[in-house]
Amino acid sequence: MIFQAFRQIPARFRVIRRRAYTTPSAQHSIYISNSTNPYFNLTFEDWLFRHKAPEEPLLLIYRDDPCVIIGRNQNPWKEVNFKALRERPGIPFIRRRSGGGTVYHDLGNTNFSIHLPREEFDRHATAQVVLRAVRSLGIDARVNDRNDICVAYKIVNKRAYHHGTMLISSRLDTLGDLLRTTKDTMITRGVASVRSPVCNLQQYCRELTHDTFTNAVVLAFQNEYGITSPAQVVDETDELRHVEYIRKGLEELPSWDWAYGQTPEFTYTVYHNFAWGRVTADIHSKHGIINTCKLSISDTRLEDFAVDALTELGQTLEGKRYGFLGDLPGAREHAGPRRDILTWIKEIIET
C-alpha cells in the first residue's frame, strides 16, 4: 500500500455510539471486542462465524496482546523464528482456524474480520471496504494484486469471512525478528507466507489511533451493507468463556495437538561441517512427529564410525515430537561424533 500524510482526523470519526454487550448472542452485525486475549478473540471470531445467520453480514474488530498468528495450514517451524520467540517470554504463537499467512499482533495494530454469505464473498470487495475507511481518514491507500489489506480468509458451507491486520503503531522490530526465518531447505505441503514490506499508519499520521481507525471501518461497513444498528462492545466475561463452543476453543488453541499436531507433512534437509567430517540429515515429519531422520557422513576423517551407528542415531529421533526432543541418550556423553551430531540435531530441530 501507498500512504500519504494528512494533518487532522475528520471529526465524524472521533466518537461512535456503541452499545454494551456481555451476553452470548450472534444477533448483531458489528462487534468490537474489549478483550486483548488472542485466544479469546480468535475463538469468539470462530463462534460468530459458526452461529451468525448465514445471510447477514458481520464485522468484528479487536486487538491482541503480543503474539504470532499462523494460518490453519502452515508450518510453524517454517514461519516462526522460535529462537527469537523464546527470547521474548510471554509472546505465544497461535494457529488460527482460517487459512492465510503469518502475522504479528500487538496493541499497536487493529484486526478486522468481515463475514458474508458465501455467494456474496469477494476478497477484493471486502478489501475495498477497509480501503474506503483508510481513505476517509485522509490517507491515499491502494490495494495491490494480492489484496494485501486482507491477509486471511475462511469459507465453510454458506458462509465466508475475510480478516486482516492494520498496523497503526506496532513494534515493527519485534515483528521482523519473530517472522524472520531462513529455512529454505524445509519443504512443506502447507501454505508458505509471502513476505511483504510493511509500515505503521502513524508514520504518516501521528493522530491516528485504534479508536479512530475502528470508527472509520465501522462507518464504511455500515454504509456498504446498509446497517443502521450501533456497534456492540464485547467483554470477555465468564458467561462468554463458559459457552460450550468457546470453552472448548479456548482449551484447544494452546494445546500441542492443535498448535503443532496440525502441521502439514514436511521434509528438512540440513548439513553441518564438523572438524572430523560433514554430516547431512534428511528429516521427514508429519503432524508434528518425526517419522524418519536419515544421517550420512562425507569428507570424513573417521575410520571407525560405522554406517549402522548413523542409522541408530537417526532412529533415536523417530516418533519424537519435532521441536520438543528433550534429553537424548548420548547427547551429554564425553566429546565425540555421537555427541556432536545429537547436539547439532537438537539445535536445528528446536529452533
From TrEMBL:
Q: PROSITE patterns this protein is in?
A: BPL_LPL_CATALYTIC
Q: Pfam families from the entry?
A: LplA-B_cat (PF21948)
What GO cellular component is one of the record's annotations? mitochondrion
InterPro entries found in the cross-reference section: aa-tRNA-synth_II/BPL/LPL (IPR045864), BPL_LPL_catalytic (IPR004143), LipoylTrfase_LipoateP_Ligase (IPR004562)
One GO-annotated biological process of the protein: protein lipoylation
> One GO molecular-function annotation for this sequence?
lipoyltransferase activity
Using the record's annotation, list all stretches that form the BPL/LPL catalytic domain. Answer: 53-229
The protein's annotated pathway:
Protein modification; protein lipoylation via exogenous pathway; protein N(6)-(lipoyl)lysine from lipoate: step 2/2
Which family is it part of? Belongs to the LplA family.
Function according to Swiss-Prot or TrEMBL: Catalyzes both the ATP-dependent activation of exogenously supplied lipoate to lipoyl-AMP and the transfer of the activated lipoyl onto the lipoyl domains of lipoate-dependent enzymes.
The protein in question is named Putative lipoate-protein ligase A
